[in-house]
Design brief:
This protein is of the alpha/beta class and 221 residues long. The chain has one domain: 2-Layer Sandwich (Nucleotidyltransferase, domain 5), CATH 3.30.420. It is 42% helix and 13% strand. The protein has nine helices and five strands; from the N terminus they run H-H-E-E-H-E-H-H-E-E-H-H-H-H.
């Protein structure tokens, strides 16, 4: 990886998350600690996506200091750290629950389904989970939900970056299919432009029909 490229990037805003939670667990004998986070609970369209990342003990390199909660990073900053995460992490995966599953199950159950799918896709089995305030009661792995975990905990922040970049790419693909809704720009969130087009055109097939205000402008699927 070209370190010079990383040095030229503008530093991400916000306080850097630390590796303290992971190191404490490593000292207790947990060698495989996974950070888990989701993106896309609030949008009016598209899937909810979860990311899971297992970092090595005491990860090193300038890329570590660039990782933040994905919401505090620009798209270019997120894309810049992705190759380093894929090179350095012991395991990385994503899982998703579709707009149909969100409508059928509700957003909380669909979010947990996406997280479970991410975990099931990992080639290794984590010994402990660090989560962004969203516990998984049906997963038989020791875990710790942390409020604002994506801002405080390095592996959770890394998982948020993986989830965010994956979901953003999916929404750009959907923009090519449904260009009238500007999904490449709004990623399905309720921006003024999105709401204007939704009101004018009605929902498209990937809208969440159980979400207000989509329910106000229902059209046949």
């Amino acid at each position: 990886m070209p370190g010079a490229v990383l040095k030229r990037r503008r530093k991400a805003s916000g306080t850097a998350p630390t590796n303290e939670e992971e190191e404490a667990l490593h000292s207790q004998g947990y060698s495989l600690v996974a950070g888990l986070d989701e993106v896309g609970r609030g949008p009016l369209a598209g899937p909810v996506v979860a990311g899971v990342v297992v970092l090595p003990p005491s990860p090193q390199g300038p890329w570590v200091g660039l990782i933040r909660d994905s919401k505090q990073m620009t798209p270019n900053q997120r894309e810049a750290v992705l190759p380093y995460l894929h090179d350095e992490a012991l395991g990385i995966e994503t899982g998703a629950a579709s707009h149909v599953e969100i409508d059928e199950l509700g957003i909380v159950a669909a979010t947990r389904l996406a997280m479970q799918r991410a975990l099931d896709s990992l080639a290794l089995r984590p010994q402990f989970l660090l989560l962004d305030a969203f516990p998984l009661p049906n997963v038989p792995i020791p875990q710790k939900p942390i409020i604002r975990g994506d801002s405080l905990c390095l592996s959770i922040a890394a998982a948020s970056v993986i989830a965010k970049t994956t979901r953003d790419r999916l929404m750009v693909e959907q923009d090519a299919l449904y260009p009238s809704y500007a999904f490449a720009r709004n990623k399905g969130y309720a921006t003024r432009e999105h709401l204007h087009n939704l009101r004018a055109l009605g929902p498209c097939p990937i809208h969440r029909y159980s979400f207000a205000p989509v329910t106000n402008w229902l059209a046949p699927r």
